[in-house]
Write a structure and sequence with these properties.
Radius of gyration: 23 Å
Oligomer: single chain
Shape: globular
Number of domains: 2
Distance between the termini: 26 Å
Helix content: 25-40%
Number of helices: 12
Largest sheet: 9 strands, mixed
CATH architecture of the largest domain: 3-Layer(aba) Sandwich
CATH class of the largest domain: Alpha Beta
Structural class: alpha/beta
Order of helices and strands: HHHEEEHEHHEEHHHHEHEEEEEEEEHEE
């Protein structure tokens, strides 16, 4: 990463805790934060500088690629990865043994149970965000929503930090729905959205009557106009705008588009993943990673089970089980699992207590599933109380998980970026490293 003039000026001052007005003005000139009120910056600059420079250890860089499996709506931890057999909160499902002695999960996740030696279940996740929109933002970005900052989701972070730009395909692709845009990293790191894995991607071909020569002529004219506009106005938005157009054209003409065509896989492979959107999305994710994509997010909707919880979760679990287990097996067989992180989680858990056949929002305790990318498999990290109401030991906040994941991608979670004039750490400063999740 390039040197940050903001930090260089701050570090000139030997006592970070005693920045004066003169130093602040130098910082404002170097880093472009002059619009920030003096009293706000005076209180915060020292903390940001210390966070960026102190207490850092080398990141392992074990993980190179990521599949983010988002369970939209918030699954019940008790009905999936943290069963409570025999307890009043346990519900209708039985717990089954897995490939690792002593680790039991829902009876409706039998294929994942077979892969437990490569899985890590974090049973002690928690947050304060019990609203869908806020929780969704949190588990994508590692931050609770803030009025003045648009944080990048994990896929955008990995696009910005790891992708080298040589692949014809976008570095971050969101399947079965849109993830969040690129935030302060810009639209060039926003996800390319595949609305449904079982349908062709729209708008990749020429419109009726358009020839390649005419298309290229129009592209040249547009680029000339943009260049003139940039010279006249000094607008910084023109270059990333042109980059997006260039990448779109490159994608339209790339042979790597075949990575989206899951129908080219053998029928037995498609059936193993599941023929619905989620299963085919997981298969697409594997094909995209092989083609050079850095991060693929695949969404499985339907986990907001206020009513009819058990019938819905049984069906969803079957879909999840086949898709994720098949991905893990495929990655392993191709030698890709060791450096591909698979993360599977929703925005929160659901109430331990069953309410008229359903479970409601419950951010106080929930589970996440990790595999690959250096994850220490065959373990459960943390636990919840007997009835699943809250973490009993080793609690893990979302910021903690993001901090730890960043480290294992070789990314410094305390690096400072700018959201407009505001310096902000990549991961929430409340986050800390969680030992034991990765080898």
């Amino acid at each position: 990463m390039a040197s940050n003039p903001f930090l260089e000026v701050v570090r000139e001052n030997e006592a970070y805790g005693a920045l004066g007005r003169r130093t602040f003005l130098k910082v404002a000139a170097a880093g472009g934060v002059g619009a920030v009120l003096y009293d706000q910056a005076f209180a915060g600059i020292a903390a940001w500088a210390r966070a960026a420079s102190a207490g850092q250890t080398a990141a392992s860089g074990t993980a190179k690629r990521c599949v983010f499996v988002y369970l939209a709506g918030g699954p019940s931890h008790i009905d999936t990865f943290d069963p409570k057999p025999g307890h009043a909160n346990g519900g209708e499902f039985k717990a089954i043994e897995s490939a690792v002695a002593g680790i039991r999960i829902s009876e409706h996740l039998p294929e994942l149970a077979k892969e437990m030696k490569d899985l890590c279940i974090v049973r002690s996740m928690f947050s304060k965000e019990g609203n869908h929109d806020r929780g969704r933002y949190l588990v994508h970005t590692g931050y609770s929503p803030q009025a003045l900052v648009a944080h990048p989701p994990l896929g955008s972070v990995l696009s910005h930090e790891l992708a080298d730009g040589t692949c014809d395909l976008p570095a971050f692709i969101s399947v079965n729905g849109a993830s969040f845009p690129g935030g302060y990293f810009g639209t060039q790191h926003s996800p390319f959205v595949v609305q449904r894995a079982t349908r062709p991607i729209e708008d990749l071909g020429m419109s009726n009557g358009m020839t390649a020569e005419r298309f290229d002529s129009r592209r040249k004219l547009l680029k000339d106009l943009d260049t003139r506009f940039a010279k006249k106005t000094g607008s910084a938005a023109v270059e990333p705008h042109q980059q997006i157009y260039d990448r779109a054209v490159k994608l339209m003409r790339s042979p790597l588009l075949a990575a989206f065509e899951v129908a080219k896989e053998a029928e037995t492979v498609q059936a193993a993943y599941g023929k619905e959107d989620f299963g085919q999305g997981m298969l697409m994710a594997r094909r995209l990673l092989e083609a050079g994509v850095t991060c693929v997010e695949v969404t499985l909707n339907g986990w907001d089970t206020h009513q009819n919880n058990f019938a819905a979760v049984k069906k969803l679990s079957d879909t999840l089980d086949r898709g994720v287990a098949s991905l893990i097996r495929d990655l392993r067989s191709r030698g890709m699992l060791k450096d591909t992180l698979v993360m599977c989680l929703g925005e929160f858990g659901r109430t331990p207590k069953i309410n008229n056949g359903g479970r409601d929002h419950w951010p106080r305790a929930w589970s996440a599933l990790l595999a690959g990318g250096g994850v220490r498999g065959g373990q459960v990290y943390g636990s919840t109380t007997e009835g699943g109401e809250e973490p009993k030991d080793q609690p893990v906040a979302v910021a903690d998980l993001f901090f730890t994941v960043a480290k294992h991608f070789g990314v410094d979670p305390t690096q400072i970026n700018f959201a407009g004039p505001r310096p902000i750490t990549l991961v929430d400063k409340a986050g800390k490293y969680v030992p034991g999740l990765f080898s």
